[in-house]
Amino acid sequence: MTRPFAATVWREGDWYVSQCLEVDVASQGKTEEEALANLKEALELHFEPPQATRPPMVRTVEVEIGAA
């Protein structure tokens, strides 16, 4: 089964970054085409059934916001 996803691509320095708009997945590449191909692979991996033998540990990260 295939499903289309919307993606954006932008340049950051020497790299192109691609991001899926529906799912929180992103990737990068040296060209726009490579960034999109890497995003496609990342999305395919994202939707594979879990293979972990134990659940991942969720952690909290504190970030200072608005500090001058």
Structure described in brief:
The chain is of the alpha+beta class. Helices cover 22% and strands 24% of the residues.
Write up this protein.
This protein has one helix spanning 32-46, and strands spanning 7-12, 15-20, 26-29. The protein has 68 residues and is α+β, with helices and mostly antiparallel strands. It has a domain at 7-46. The chain has one helix and three strands. The model has no long low-confidence stretch (mean pLDDT 92). Strands 1-2-3 form a three-stranded antiparallel beta sheet, covered by helices on one side. The termini are far apart.
Please outline the helices and strands.
Elements: E1 7-12, E2 15-20, E3 26-29, H1 32-46
Provide keyphrases for this structure.
three-stranded antiparallel beta sheet; 68 residues; alpha+beta; 3 strands
Number of strands: 3
- What is the distance, rounded to the nearest whole angstrom, between the alpha carbons of the first and last residues? 50 Å
Which outline best applies?
flat
Mean pLDDT: 92
What fraction of the residues are assigned to beta strands by DSSP?
A: 15-25%
State the secondary-structure class: alpha+beta
Rounded Rg: 16 Å
Helix content: 10-25%
Order of helices and strands: EEEH
User: Biggest sheet, strands in spatial order?
Assistant: 1-2-3
Total helices: the number is: 1
> Major β-sheet, in short?
3 strands, antiparallel
Uncertain runs: none
